[in-house]
Fold this sequence. Notes:
This protein is of the alpha+beta class. Helix content is 45%, strand content 16%. It folds into 3 domains: 3-59, no CATH class; 69-162, Tyrosine recombinase, N-terminal domain (DNA polymerase, domain 1, Orthogonal Bundle); 183-329 and 339-420, hpI Integrase, Chain A. The protein has helices at 40-56, 62-65, 69-79, 84-102, 112-119, 126-145, 166-176, 183-193, 195-207, 211-215, 281-293, 310-322, 348-361, 366-373, 381-384, 389-410; strands at 3-8, 18-25, 31-37, 222-230, 233-242, 244-252, 258-267, 275-278, 414-415, 419-420. Helix 9 (195-207) packs antiparallel against helix 11 (281-293). The N and C termini lie far apart (95 Å). This is Integrase. GO terms for molecular function: DNA binding. Keywords: DNA recombination, DNA-binding. One of its GO terms (biological process) is DNA integration.
Amino acid sequence: MAYAEKRVSQAKGKKGKVTWRARYKRPDGTWGSEPGFPTKTTAENWGEEQEAAIRAGRWIDPELSRKHFGVWAKEFMKARQKRSRTNDKRWDLLNEYILPKWQHAPLISITWFDVDSWAQTLPCEDVTRGHAVSLMSTIMTAAVDAQHLLVNPLAGRRRSKEVLTLASAEAKREETAEKWHRPEDVILVAERLGPARGLMVLTAGFTGINWGEGQGLHRSKTLLIRREPYDGGVWTCPVLRIDQEVAESTLRDEDGKKLGDVLALEPVKTKYRIRDIDLPPFLALLWRYHYDDWPFDWMLSTANGKWWRRSNWGKVLRPAADGRPELDRCQGRSARPKWEPIAPGMTMRSLRHTADTYQEQIGVKAPLAYEQAGHKQPGIKGVYQHPTPEMRQERLDGLQEIFERAMRNLGLRTLWGRVDLRKGSPWR
């Protein structure tokens, strides 16, 4: 049964001050204590409340609830390992935004009002603020699961809307503008980059593969054949099989300190990302030439067969899309012609937006659009609807027409001077 102990301070400046310490029996039979109560009655009442909570199965150890958020966050990161890129993003959010504010805050002291107010002051995009709050909530929920807290004060709460100024509204308008590219621009950037690099741009722009999926394309997964019963026969189509990706991540110690960057092959993020992507005729033809000419197993690799690093790929794509100045020849450097801008801001992500936009433009049916993009179709329709050969052929015809029309508009008949893409085509 809980009781109280009298405590008389001997500390300088507080000598003779009387306080009371609550003593109560913990679940394991040992005696717990909590000091600092002004009266015997308040100490006894607090101890009895602890024992009542223990009997009811809802007791939280006060010592655990006072654990600092930073200490618990590191325990959480060690125990809840995710895919490499997910771990990287979590550590970046913790080190850059969350821990500078909350590292020494006791778990029990964190409130939704304080977190919501803090989030509005973060010097980053609103989506990043949302990710930071979401990660904090995930860590606090884990604290509940580990019996450090009784409830998560952040769970299920909606952040306050950002207050826009004229300047921030204009900036947001620019952020959301033009996140897709004209097919003419995709073709011109691909032409400028050359066969191997340009094929990466074309494939992303017309199929929607992401960066890691492209790097993980092995020769054995390339130009396989889809076969489906159709109209008394068999419908066939060349495909790229996506079931793995290359992740660029950062090795870290237990405290999140960076130890170095690595490239590693991983399974794709979800089961919906495992898919066979149907190739329209022009892309299948280009892939066939690339398959025959490319000497390495990783089909969208660097010129020496290694995986691209994102930063190195950016150094290649940026001038091809954004343009570059002319450079004269000098010692140790060849002359370099000027490149005019084609599609400023083009990225692998914007090319993925482009591919999905093309599918919407040509009316690709929902079950096929979701399948080819590697997404889960929401709702009950995702259970009952499935792609058919007719849907697949309509998509291929539509993408082929987009490409052919863009080639006509550009006055091109070949890419990279290697393949006459007009032979046998309707635009001759």
